[in-house]
Amino acid sequence: MALWNASTPCDDAACLSALCISRAPGVNLTSLCAVAHSGTWACCGHASYNHVFPIALWLSFGCVTVWCHLRTGLFGDLVLGVHTLHDIRTQALGVVVARQKRVIFGKVRRDPRRVLLLVSMAYEVVGFSYIPGQLLLYQFFDRGSFMGQFSGELQWAKCVLGTALLVVLEVWPPRCWPRSWTSARDKLLAPLLYDLCYTTVLYGVVDVGGCWNGADDIRLPDGTNCADASRFWLFPTFGTLLFIAFYYGTLEYKRRLSDDIFSVQFRYHASFNGVMIAVRTAGVLGFYAVEKGLLELDALVVSVSVSIVHVFIFATLLYYNYTHQPCLGVGYLPNNLRSLSFASACYSGTLLLVVSAMQMSTGRRAWTAYETILASVATILYAPLALLVWRWNRAAALRYQVPNAPLLELLRHNNLRVRAVAAVSMVLEDVVLDPVEIRAQILALHATLQAAPHAEDGCVAAYSCQALWHLWRHRFERNKPFLETPKRPTACWKFGCWAHSRESGPNLALLEPTPHALASAATSRMSMRRTSNLRVSRFSIAGSRGISLGRLTEQQTCRNGIMSILAPVAFDAGMHRCATHAIDTLTSLVRSRYAKARFIAAKVLLEMYKCRVLQLTRDSVAFVAITRLVSSPRLADADAAAETLRRLMNEGDGAERKRLLLVAFTDHLNVLHVTQAMATTEWEIEISVMLLQLLTDALTLCMVHDTPSSDIAVPPPDRFLSKAAVEYLVQLQSRWKEHRVFGMVDHVLVLMRQCCEHHAMRRQSANNAVLPEPCENTLMGTREYNAVLERHRTRVKVLTSVQWVLAEGYPSQKRLNELSPNTRRALESVASLIALGDNDLVAYLESNLSEPQRWYLGGLLGSVVYQTHDDKPPS
User: What is the C-alpha separation between 376 and 418, in angstroms, rounded?
Assistant: First the structure.
């Protein structure tokens, strides 16, 4: 491709560099080098200047990106699934804050950040296609330079203004800002620099630091310019430091914005924001690298290489944006804009690849009519393609879109996920409603329960029940307590038996209307509007990511009361039917296979029980207690759940305890939650010992009752035992290597294996056929199980020997020389095993012996050690 005719005058950097490299005839290199210009570095002995700054920028970009990720885990959320990202509780919290922050003391407030973000995303539709578009124009005009470049004066102006604004935002102390300007700084200046003008300012920083695109036309006070050899190292150093500060400041701003629920009606999670900043930054650095690469490499080779990388990156982003819809909240427009931007970048990159490949395949170095026709057709087809991409992403975006609509309308929305978000927002936001509005909400929630009991893995039904309970508790009159099984009242657990948490306040109770709450509706509405908006200030999230929005939502849904209530609504027959259906749904969800729905149901059922509204059966209490072991927000609440489980299992006769053990510990999630709680919760070791003992008793009963003649049905072990539970037990064992917990875990693992083997043998004998691989082969590897079994057998053997010794010598307190030879040999074998330093064996023996027996055995073992030492022959 011809670059520039030597007889044609040129004064831009790219043209001069092309003349230098081509060594075209008629070019006077002496006169070219007489004036300092970045375009003449290559032929004036400073060719390395074209490489120093690009390398420094890319190294800085990589180091800052990696350092930010290592320091804050910036990109950790990219591995999260779409349902985890679009958490219903977090979306509901954002909806509540967005609704409350728009109206403050009756005055509508607009946040300019939303408009600036949307304009910035609209600019990306063109910005992400900038490099392919420039390379296509570069080939079309065949001029050896790019089109539409800003002048050197404008690049300097962008760099200076951007630097000044960066200093004002990041260096100027916040206390020096007038109070009235703080909002403008956070909502106007910061998004203006870090969102809207980010790439524009960054292009100026790169061009000034690299003394490129006319930046050397500006004369310094001493008459030199940035291209002068005596000034060169100053500008790349300044540009690199400014780039690092600007890039790092933008990453930090985006991270804070992602964790701020007050930011806008929509927000992106921090990882995707970080990716977008990295992509926009890489686009600026990439274009600068392309400009430098064209000076020394073939233009078509550069175009093909860039197009391949470009299409791969933006195709990956398009796939992620479509599958995850990363904009949370009211995200229909932002998600569609991003899909259009990524698709446009893929389209332009593909066009560049096809055009360049056509020229390379035919050996042509000039733009011809074939490329013109292809580019024209592609330009015409872009509009329908953009419309197709918008409609293609529309369905996925609407799936997670939360419309900006009234609460009752959201409760009746066709999208069940939107109904769940509205249900959670009812719990988070306290508003004053009249009885007609309350009953309308109750009916809408009841309709959701009937329509979608298992939607979103049961979360829609669970959150609807939680919202219905919130209205029931705070808006309705007291009513006679419900029974989970009205036909069998004796099966229900009496009130007041749940263990009291040492960190909790008074017991929950239904709120009584106060004289203040019985004031006029108008006064209450005005008061509620003020307190509701003032309460927004209590939502506080620090700039760090130490507290998640999910935890904040959990705190807000655990409130014991509301700000004020009107006169309670009568509890009529219609409400009774809705409440009964909600109770049936909750008791079903607490036994479901959905862990998250079980967490919510257990929380609501526990509140109902503590409020003395619902008497649960013992089976339901067991499920609630086990679930609260891992879902309680505080350690004290988990301790209370463990104590409640102990009380429940020790209450009643032996037959009832056996039945409860089998009901509670033959459920997959219950076994998983118990083992998870023991492995991950930092509580007292006695609680783990108690839970391990319950699990041991339950597994033993499973083998006893896993017979055709048993009156208790026991499910197959593969339905309630899992590899994850085994891994949690091994994790627990690694924390207590010198405690009897170590041996108890081994015993549980052996019982798990024996349950599987026993069930497999019974099925094989019943069917008289070869069955599939039993579950014991999937729980643990053969080598691991053999090691566990060997330790368990050693403990049983040692305990048997110790009991033999105690049976002979303990009643009469015999000394070592008074014991029989066989007993002394057994005692010596015990001493030899203990001497190996097996601390868990000592703990196991101590847990199975009384204190007098331990003292007596210790004396005998000491005598054995001393006697062995004395019997050694002299050396």
Answer: 44
* 693 CB neighbour count, 10 Å cutoff: 15
| Mean pLDDT for the stretch of residues 149-166 | 88
Which residues touch 591 (CB under 8 Å, ≥6 apart)? 598, 623, 667
Question: Of all residues in the chain, what percent carry a pLDDT higher than 90?
Answer: 33
Mean pLDDT of 3-19: 54
Distance, CA of 642 to CA of 636 (rounded, Å) = 10
pTM of the complete model: 0.75
User: Which residues, at least 6 apart from 849, have a Cβ–Cβ distance to it below 8 Å?
Assistant: 802, 806, 857
**572-578, Cβ contacts within 8 angstroms, sequence gap of 24 or more:** 574/439, 574/442, 575/439, 575/442, 575/472, 575/476, 576/479, 577/446, 578/442, 578/443, 578/445, 578/446, 578/468
Token pair, residue 165, equals 């604004």
Question: Of 252, 172, 169, 237, nearest to 205 (Cα)?
Answer: 237
Q: Which residue has the tokens 């329960």?
A: 449
pLDDT of 563-602, one tens digit each? 344 557 778 888 889 999 999 999 999 999 999 999 999 9
Choice between 738 and 212, residue whose per-residue pLDDT is larger: 212
Structure token digits, residue 714: 């026991």
Task: Give buried/exposed letters for 832-856 (b at 16+ CB in 10 A, else e).
Answer: ebbeeebebbbbbbbeebeeebeeb
Q: What is the 3-state secondary structure (H, E, C) of 44-94?
A: CCCCCHHHHHHHHHHHHHHHHHHHHHHHHCCCHHHHCCHHHHCCHHHHHHH
DSSP code string of 515-536: TTTTS-HHHHHHHHHHHHHHGG
In the chain, the N- to C-terminal Cα span, in Å, equals 95
Is residue 10 within 8 A of residue 19, CB to CB? The reply is yes
User: Coil, strand or helix: which one is 806?
Assistant: helix
* 3-class SS of residue 261: coil
Tokens of 200: 């524009």
> For residues 872 and 796, what is the distance between their CA atoms, to the nearest angstrom?
30
Compute the 3-state secondary structure of the chain and give helix, strand, coil in percent, each to the nearest 5: 70, 0, 30
Residue 237's pLDDT is: 93
Higher pLDDT, residue 353 or 452? 353
Q: Is residue 646 within 8 Å of 701, Cβ to Cβ?
A: no
Q: What is the mean pLDDT of the chain?
A: 80
Indicate whether 289 pLDDT > 70: yes
pLDDT digit string, tens, across residues 457-487: 889 999 999 999 998 888 888 778 888 888 8
What is the per-residue pLDDT across 333-355, written as a single tens digit (0 to 9) for each? 999 999 999 999 999 999 999 99
CB neighbours of 605 closer than 8 A, spacing ≥ 6? 586, 587, 590, 614, 616, 620, 624
Is residue 649 within 8 Å of residue 626, measured between CB atoms? no
815-819-821-827 Cα dihedral, nearest 10 degrees = -60
Q: Range with the lowest mean pLDDT among 389-393, 710-714, 788-792, 799-803?
A: 710-714
Alpha-carbon span 41 to 43, nearest angstrom: 6
Beta strands, E only, 223-308: 266-268
3-state secondary structure of 266: strand
> How many C-beta neighbours within 10 Å does residue 451 have?
13
Buried b (16+ CB within 10 A) or exposed e, 703-735: bebbeeeeebebebbbebbbeebbebbbebbee
Helix residue ranges per DSSP H, 325-368: 332-362
- DSSP reduced 3-state for 569: strand
What single letter denotes the amino acid at residue 300? Answer: L
- What CA–CA distance (Å, rounded) separates 538 from 624? 31
CA distance 643 to 683: 12
Look up tokens 């885990």; give the residue: 73
